[in-house]
Every structure is written in structure tokens, then in C-alpha cells.
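Hello K.,

You asked for the raw outputs rather than the summary table, so here they are, unedited. I folded two proteins back to back in the same session to keep the settings identical. This is the first:
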Amino acid sequence: MKKYTCTEYRQEMVLLSLKRQLAEPGLDNAEKQRLEKQIRQLEKEMGMQ
């Protein structure tokens, strides 16, 4: 069984926060693109892509 590390937990919490920010109404296009880029990068690091 694989251990669940503090780093993995932190990454999940950061990803959740980014997705919540992305769901906020009234974001401009530049901010949406920045958040989407960060989400894609983090998901890649986590092996989700």
C-alpha cells in the first residue's frame, strides 16, 4: 500500500483552491488563463494527466 504524504496532501489542497478560484464569477480572461495553466501544471505533476 502506498503511503499518502504531506506533499501529496498539500498538492491536493492547492489544486482545490485553484479550482475554487477559477469558479469565481467575474474573473477576467487573463486571470482565468493563469489559473488554468497552474491547474494543468499541478495535475501533470500529480500524474493526473
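The second followed immediately with the same parameters:
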Amino acid sequence: MDFVWILLLAVTLLIVIAVFYLSAGVVSQDWAATPSYALRILFVSLIFVFVVPIVSDIGRDEGLSNFMLLLSFVFLVVVVRFVMVEELAVPDDWLSSMVISLIGVGLIFVIEEVADRLFGLSMPSVV
């Protein structure tokens, strides 16, 4: 690991934190960030940056990459439900976690595509 890779990983983590904060704020209309809620967002972002690429890359050799992407999205929905949504005042926990995850993943894919087209950068993979 060199310094540039670590810096890119840190920037990616900060972007993912901002995206999940925004998506949760849009869904819950609650923009307050208590310290415990900030730690929950950090935990979900760490899972997104480190665990989801590992799960997605497992099926790459077997031709199951689309299935593994779906599985990692479902895993993300469950993590968002039991970690982030616990602190939000929303009427339906599961629906909110699905929408937060969908908005978050969508925004992250858009940001990654823009970064790739403008700067030739992609989000770092931990595998």
C-alpha cells in the first residue's frame, strides 16, 4: 500500500459518509447528527467501502458477479436497517433502509462514474 492508495481510500470513505448522511437525511427529514449517529454512519460506510467489494469480487471468477452485487446490496440494506435506522424517526424501518441504501448506492455509482470520466479515477478496491 502506498500513500496515494491510502489517501484515495480515505477520500472514498469521506464521500461515502457524506452520501449516506444525505440519503438518510432525505428519507427521514432529520438532519441532526449526534455523535452516536455519526458513528453509526461511519460503521455503515466502512462496511460499504471494505465488505461490499469483497463480497462482490468473490463471485467474479465464477461468473456470479451480478448475483454477488445483489447479495451485497441486500446485506447493505440489512446493515442500514439495524445500524442507522435505529436512530431515525421513520414510520417503516425496512422501507426506509431500502430507500436509504438505494439512494446511497445510486449516488455512489454516479460519483464513481463522474470521477472515472473526468479524472480517470475509480474507487479503490480492498481486494
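The chain has one domain: 3-27+34-119.

Happy to rerun anything if the numbers look odd on your end.

Regards,
P.
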